Amino acid sequence: MTRIAGLFIAAPLMAVALAAAPQSAATQQKPHASMNAEQVIAAWKAVPQDVAKKMLAKYGQPQEVTANRLVWHNNGPWKFTQLVNEEIPHDFPMPHKDALYQAINYRIAPDKADELLQYDGSLLLERTKGEIGARCDKQDANFLAINLANDVATGKRSVDDARKFYAESMMAMMKQNKKNEYLQGFIFKVPTGEQGDRDKPFDMPTK
After folding, report:
1. 25 near 42, Cβ under 8 Å?
2. CB 131 within 8 A of CB 105
3. Which of 23, 96, 131, 187 is the most exposed place for a label (fewest CB within 10 A)?
4. Helix, strand, coil: what percent of the chain each, to 5?
5. Residue 62: closest CA among 51, 97, 158
6. What ranges do the domains of the chain cover?
7. Starting at the edge strand that comes first in sequence, how are the strands of the sheet with 80-90 ordered?
């Protein structure tokens, strides 16, 4: 029997309570000790397994490891990188399978959402949370997707121009091993801090 803050708790119950308590932020940022990323991805599908090997070589062990998911937080220029054991068919600009999702802080203008999704269906827009992300099979392609999304959002490019530039850039990289600056990193200053749009309460009409 153990006394805590004036209460007596049986030892087994106390152990359960302590085990259920939230972990500290520092503890949450450490890779799960019982799961090794290399062992986990050994049974994965071909595309996410190949991407996982490249991400592990570049960023090291992820902070989160489960049987079907790896997550890195604040890795390089990204807010997070998430890789799942899933192959999502995507035919633009050429048939491939998406698996690698990466995101940054970004304020989404609601009136630009339609244009952004017309430009690339693999963009993920989080207006309330203040994030924009891209999902593909290559980090280079995610840089390209978000750089062009910023061009569309700021009025620098039209949807058609962005799609054309995306296709040309990917073709040059895949066939000629040529990478323009849009594929190598962010060409705009990535926003920092809170970028979310909480919206506002709905005012119900009074009778």
Report:
1. no
2. yes
3. 23
4. 40, 20, 40
5. 51
6. 36-183
7. 64-66, 69-73, 80-90, 96-105, 131-136, 123-126
C-alpha–C-alpha distance, residues 123 and 80, integer Å: 15
Per-residue pLDDT of the chain (207 residues; tens, 9 = 90+): 444 444 444 444 333 333 334 343 333 445 444 579 999 999 999 999 999 999 999 999 999 999 999 999 999 999 999 999 999 999 999 999 999 999 999 999 999 999 999 999 999 999 999 999 999 999 999 999 999 999 999 999 999 999 999 999 999 999 999 999 999 999 999 998 889 878 888 888 887
- CA distances (Å), 51 to each of 69, 99, 100, 176, 203, in order? 12, 8, 7, 21, 48
186 CB-contact burial (10 Å; exposed 0-12 / middle 13-18 / buried 19+): middle
Those residues with Cβ within 8 angstroms of residue 53's Cβ, 6 or more apart along the chain or in another chain: 41
Identity of the amino acid at 1: M
Number of Cβ atoms within 10 Å of the Cβ of 142: 25
Query: Can you give 124-176 as a three-state secondary structure string?
Result: EEECCCCEEEEEECCHHHHHHHHHHHHHHHCCCCCHHHHHHHHHHHHHHHHHH
